[in-house]
Amino acid sequence: MMRLRLALSGILAAVAGIAAGHLVAGFLAPASSPVLAIGSTVIDLTPTPVKEWAIATFGTNDKLILQGSVLVVTLVLAAVAGLLARRRMPLAVGFIVLLTGLAGAAALLRPAARPLDVLPALAAMAAGVTTLVWLVRLARRASDEAVAKGDEATVDGPRGSKMTPAADSAAQRGTGRRGFIGGALGVTALSVLAAVGGQLRAGAQTIKKVVLPAAADKAKPLPTGLETQVSGISPLRTPTEKFYRVDTNLTVPKVDVDSWTLEVGGMVDKPFTLTFAELAAMPLIERDITMTCVSNEVGGGYIGAARWLGVRLTDVLDRAGIKGSPDQVLSTAVDGFTISTPLGVVRDGRDAMIAIGMNGAQLTDTHGFPARLITPGLYGFVGATKWLTKLTLTTYAADQAYWTKRQWATDAPIKTSARIDTPAPLSTIQAGMTAIGGVAWAQHRGVGKVEVKIDDGPWQATKLGPDVGVDYWRQWYLPWDAKTGLHRISVRATDLKGQAQITARATPFPSGSSGIQEVVVTVA
């Protein structure tokens, strides 16, 4: 029983520390919360194959799984600290100090860290050590009481001494077993209040509503999509709240638009800085663009189509003027995260932009408020920096971005691909007339045709949905008289240049997945 109390003391000490750190971080910077700081460091240190496995296995829950794993490991180590406190309290305290110290170091080593970011870890350290010492003292008193009553065998005290019935004053003071239980419940309650308070404080940080000017160069009205005809097909425009999110952030930055600036520098003639108002006052374009994450597996959901409002990236770069021979635009987010975009791609005529609006409204915090990069035809990891705050013209030889350092491709055009939305994989449908449908994409090349093959039959041309442009996906469908039995459905796309999608299977690393999607359905 004594060991259980000691282990529980260590666990509750960690819980109290984590909660205290989370509360302080809620008032300073949510990302500096101990568990989040450690989690972000783990993300940075995780090998690419493991990251890809996590995304493929857990999808958008990968961050939640990571945070849970960090928490479990922390609690296990804290339980060890509690057991150490049985004979070596200084060592147990040192263990707690080490754990919280690592969290503080992780917070300070973040790219955009400030000195104050260590305060949550210091709060966690103070709360953890205090709770551990107090609960261990209560645990010993509970053990003394049990020995005095004959309920528990004599146990070893500090440095090998024996706790005997002679030390039964705890029972008389009423701080024995009930005291420990009361202390544990009190720590738990206060920890919950602190954690909830920190979360509420962090959640209370909202982004300011801004008025977006009208675009000088507007997009045409979006045509009616096939979703009105084919049940289950992806809508022509992805609603903002359903647009995919893949990034390395465990917390979404809440940026103060009034103090936000965009710094433009590096190999330029005239470095300058823009406020949001100055950026929004520049000529704006409105474009329908489909974005794809490089982590998207064949047939995956990390793709979305939206209407973006922003400033042409070339307008900003031209204002700065290019000096020397830069070959990349190194973009930096407010948290220090970096992305490399090939300068040649930015200047080849495509509508690369600094976006400030999405689907007729300002950017949400999740999707990069107040400004982000959009580069049609490139996977997001080389052209779609969210929470943008800095543009640097430089060379790949001089500077490497986050993913470049991890051996991902430097020039990553999105591969032509097609996805089956309906019928769903492994589903059971009724025999008779139905529709096979989905979306296909070949950004900056355009979708020329989509074909479907049923079982071992021939490839059949599908009916394409409205054409919104070469940077936008195409819906497609094929009427199908489904016969009873088990059927395999395959799909492939061809771009406007006549180049069919790659059939050979490839994983997302290092330049995007490829292969033909096949689904199996049962027709009853």
Automatic annotation (TrEMBL):
Pfam families: Oxidored_molyb (PF00174). Residues 250-400 form the Oxidoreductase molybdopterin-binding domain. The chain crosses the membrane at residues 64-84, 91-112, 118-136, 180-200. Gene3D superfamilies: 2.60.40.650, Oxidoreductase, molybdopterin-binding domain (3.90.420.10). It comes from the Bacteria. Residues 147-169 are annotated as: Disordered. Keywords: Membrane, Transmembrane, Transmembrane helix. This is Sulfite oxidase.
